[in-house]
Amino acid sequence: MIEKERGFQRGEEVVVEITGVTDRGLGRAEIEALVGPQKEHAVYEIFVRKAIPGDTVRVCFEHVRRRRCTGYYVELIEASPLRIEPRCPHFGQRHISGQGCGGCTYQTMRYRHQLAIKERRIKDHFKEAGLDTGLVLPLKAMEEPWHYRNKMEFSFGDTADREFALGMHPTGYSYEIVNLDTCLLPSPFAADFVPKLRQWAVERELRPFLKSSREGFLRMLTIREGQRTGERMVELCTTASETATMNSREVPSKEIAEDFRRFALHTAEELGESITTIYWTEKYVKKGETTQWIEHHLDGNEVLSEELHLPGERVLRFDIHPRAFFQPNTMGAEVLYREVIERAGLTKAGDRQVILDLYCGTGTIGMCVAPFAKQVFGIEMQRDAVENARQNAEFNGIDNIEFFAGNVGDVLESEEFCKRCGEVDLVIVDPPRSGLQRDAIGELLEMGAPRIVYVSCNPSTLADNLADLCEGGYDLEVVQPIDLFPQTYHVECVAVLQL
Length: 499
Fold this sequence. Notes:
alpha/beta, 10 helices
């Protein structure tokens, strides 16, 4: 217990012992204090970036809101028994030059400890929601917790010292970039390509787009890789200006794009690799108007092809455009979808079940379960995602799946959908992080499907939604967590409910 004349302030430092972590991977501690002349008892929640349970640190507060304080540690007084040296030189504290990258959260812990912390967080949420924590199975690990991402986005900008940068934002900061010389989440090619592209931009005196001034040209580099096919897409995103400054003179933007194309092909050859698709995309942003992505295909194939290998030696192939969504971990996605198929009880090809796939995105889950169903109906709000889903289904020769564009609730109540769908045997839901809204839960309960498989990327909203569904008459059978994103706080869950 400490005594304070007033509450904690920005820039103040205090020593704390980290006892837990938040859903977003911040170390968590509590401080009890007697505040003010009245000695009012107060409990402050302290959140510390890059701190882990067992650490004793001196934290400097950057944000203070009432009794919640967030900051970074300026001194590691006593290291946690869990703490190890991170593999990446960019992992660490933002105030140290070249460190603070926000791409990873848990590199200072061995992988098994990362899994234990994620599993503990899931069970904590289930306990708070009044659910049986014994139904949460041990978290399934990735066989290889490094170099697993098939897509990475790297931003252009300035470092904290106002130097040209290409890399990742520090955790909690959107106006500065950590310059990356390596990265252990994508393939070695991507990690090697980034610093070479930064050198290319610096040598040509190209300017990064800065959010603070709304000026500059270079916005982002995106690298996608087919982990099953070996194909590779590189995309340079810029502002939508007709001209930009290169080598101290104003030139047409398309001239810079052509120079990028030549550089990318030459660099890939130097690295002993190849690029199968190159794009230059202009991001058009104007207040009061819809943001546009103007794509220019510069070289190679127009799409990147990737495969998913599923039970029964089935292979699904996907054509991925620059704006299309695809799970950023191919091997992890195969584990996730295999789990959905098994937990849904789909064992026989051509089963007579009618399956409803809500928040279906580009239709990946629906296509995975289609061989086991009489008919699959997918619903998704984003119309471009629905169009992509239809193309993927046609490409894979899947003819027992239909997609509907619109708000899930509106589509479920529409006369056209009710006439087409009829009675539903199984519902699969994969909502955004915010989870199912009250009206969606109400519609699920009214529909009364015998079985629901809920895929979630947010244990907090998952627990709340499952509690509501159980209160409405469903029984929770099992929850299988799956670690699709090692070194980060993210975790996927597959939950099964039976009526």
